[in-house]
Structure formats: C-alpha cells, structure tokens
Design brief:
The chain has a six-stranded mixed beta sheet with strand order 1-2-3-5-4-10, with helices on one face. A two-stranded antiparallel ribbon has the order 6-9. A two-stranded antiparallel sheet has the order 7-8. The relative contact order is 0.16. It contains twelve helices and ten strands. It is globular. Helix 1 crosses helix 12 and helix 3 packs antiparallel against helix 5. It is 35% helix and 19% strand.
Length: 354
C-alpha cells in the first residue's frame, strides 16, 4: 500500500505537515509531519509522547511512523489523524471575520474538552508547555442526512516541546548550549508568570495557557494584544494582571481568576477546574458529558494497519526505489516502534530538562 502527499498544510521548526492519501484513490486521509531523518529527533520524540498518551479522545491520535526516500532524501514521517476542521485558531478567526463571537456556553463546552485532554496528559506524566489555539485541532461531527455539524471535538496536538513531570512537578529549563536558564518554553503570548520570571515549568503552565485560550475564544483577541517589544511583553506577563472580559458571567470570571492565579502553587489544577460551575453548568442539559461521549467517542481505525494501534513502516511515501538494504536502513535511521516508547520517554526527560 503506497501513500502520496497531496499538499502542504503547514510548517514549523520540526519540519512540514502534509495532507496524504492512498494512491489507490480511496478517500482515507491522514496528516503527515515530516523532517529529514538527520533532523528528526524532536519529531520522533513527539511520536513517543503521542504513543504514551494514546487512549484519550481529546488528544490527537498518532498511527505510527515511517521512513521513506523522498526526492533523494531520507525522510522521517509521523502519521497522524487529519483534522478536517483545521485548528481552534482558524475557528476563532472565522467567528471574528463574521463579527460574531463564540457564545459563553459553547466556550465552556470547549474548555471542558480541553481540560479533559489536559487532565489526561498530566495524569500520564507530561506537561504540554505550548498550548495555544493553533496547537488545538478541530474535528466536526457532521450529520450525513442533513449535512449539518452536530458536534465539535477539540484535540490537543503538537507535543514537540512537552516535558515529563518529576516529583516536585516543576522544571527549570536550561539551554544546553549556553548553560543559561531559558525563561520559558513555547509561545510567549501564552506563557505563565513563573515560566517567564523563573523558568519554572510545571503542570500549572498549561492551566495559565488555557485561561489565555478561553479569553481568546470569548473576545477574538489575545490576552496580551498590546505590547511594544518582547521585553515589554515579559514585563506585562510577570507584573500585570490579565484583563478578564467584562461581558461574561460572574461564574466565567471566577473560572478565569482560578486559571490566572499568579502563584502557580495556588493555581487550580485541570481536575479542580473540571468541577468548577462554569464547566459543570455547561455539561448539563444540552452538553451532557454522557451524550457527548455517545456522539463522538468513536474508535478510530488505524488506516495503516487494522490490527495494530501503532505501526512502524518503511517507504510508504518513497519517490525513489534505489534503496539500501532493510537492515542498514533500519539501523541507520530513526525508527522507533511502539514497544520502545517508555525508553524514549526517559530520553525526553533527560533532553528537555538538562
């Protein structure tokens, strides 16, 4: 079974992401994150993290990995489910362009999904460290009879900067080249005060980022939308209070206060926030969690293997077939089957912390 990359969907420091489909003309689509094998260490580590996180309907599913020879280059490919709805950033922009905003009850429903995903990530021993709307994928459920969207599922994605938790649940992140403390990991606009001021990265950084995302869904604007420079933004994050929207309920305001607690030791956890009235009220009646589960908790079949949850393949996307022997190919490049995931997780901790 051979697959073909149809078009580019985006790019980042990790490499590129493409839409791919089987060459037999079937309508099975996947997203493929790619990098040259020599530059693929962070991408293969992300694959190990996603393999460790499998089982949550609120985390993007990774089907496995592949190494192919594409345009003469050995390329590492991470095989992911394709989000037909794009990202939460796209969804927020769509609302902004139509001069309407996401209703508060819908924001709470989306926050419920994100918190459930964050809770799963934290229970598995990881911190995302780069939560933002462009790293959250949108999966609409469409009524085939009427062609209308009946549900929207959000899933956490892009775990390339994630860290392992340790006993005290915080990290001080060091730049291995300069041996100087790097103040934060991820996107500064969503960074927490303790990560910017002291380089502390615990589970609480994901909660601060969630608060920023909730404000952005409500207003269509980022929390820190006005700043003159990176230093000015640093100062605002560490010394000023985020502006909580005035046109929301008191329950929503209290929820955001819990997310934006300056002292990370007192900031509410994902599990605590799931019991907050802002979330509990949104998941009763119309958005009852059990109803939600029935609508969209479908088991996704791995399109690369119907009997495995993780596959390690070779040459799914190869465009050149003058290839090395399979033994040399496997030993010389970064192929990591699922059974090595826990070993890879240990490597993630060592690389990211020190």
């Amino acid at each position: 079974m051979h697959w073909k990359k149809l078009k580019a969907l985006g790019a980042g420091s990790y490499g590129t992401v493409s839409l791919a489909a089987q060459e037999d003309g079937s309508f099975t689509f996947v997203a493929v994150k790619s990098a040259e094998v020599k530059d693929s260490s962070s991408l293969s580590m992300e694959g190990g993290i996603l393999d460790a996180l499998k089982g949550s309907p609120y985390v993007v599913q990774c089907f496995g990995e592949d190494v192919s020879v594409e345009s003469g280059k050995h390329t590492y490919n991470l095989l992911l489910e394709y989000a037909i709805g794009g990202t939460l950033h796209d969804l927020i922009n769509m609302y902004s362009k139509s001069k309407t905003m996401v209703e508060e009850s819908e924001v709470a429903y989306y926050a419920f999904q994100l918190l459930t995903g964050i809770s799963h990530v934290h229970r598995k021993g990881f911190i995302h460290c780069d939560l933002k709307p462009s790293n959250i994928l949108v999966f609409p459920t469409i009524d085939d009879e009427y062609g209308s969207i009946v549900d929207v599922r959000l899933k956490l994605a892009d775990f390339g900067l994630s860290l392992r938790t340790v006993e005290n649940e915080t990290h001080t992140y060091w730049d291995r080249g300069s041996k100087k403390c790097r103040h934060h990991i991820g996107t500064l606009l969503y960074a927490s005060p303790e990560s910017v001021a002291r380089g502390i990265h615990g589970k609480a950084v994901d909660i601060w980022a969630l608060g920023c995302i909730v404000v952005e869904m409500i207003t269509g604007r980022r929390v820190w939308s006005c700043y003159e420079s990176v230093d000015d933004l640093d100062f605002k994050i560490t010394h000023e209070e985020p502006v909580i929207p005035s046109n929301v309920s008191n329950i929503c305001k209290d929820f955001l206060v819990k997310c934006f607690e300056k002292d990370h030791n007192w900031r509410w956890t994902a599990d605590m926030l799931l019991s907050h009235p802002f979330i509990k009220n949104s998941t009763s009646g119309k958005y009852h969690p059990e109803d939600h589960e029935l609508i969209s908790n479908k088991v996704i079949i791995n399109p690369f293997s119907h009997c495995e949850s993780w596959v390690t393949k070779g040459h799914l996307f190869s465009t050149c077939f003058h290839l090395p022997s399979s033994d040399n190919f496997r030993s010389g490049y970064a192929i990591f089957p699922a059974e090595n995931a826990q070993c890879r997780m240990h490597n993630v901790e060592l690389l990211n912390i020190w």
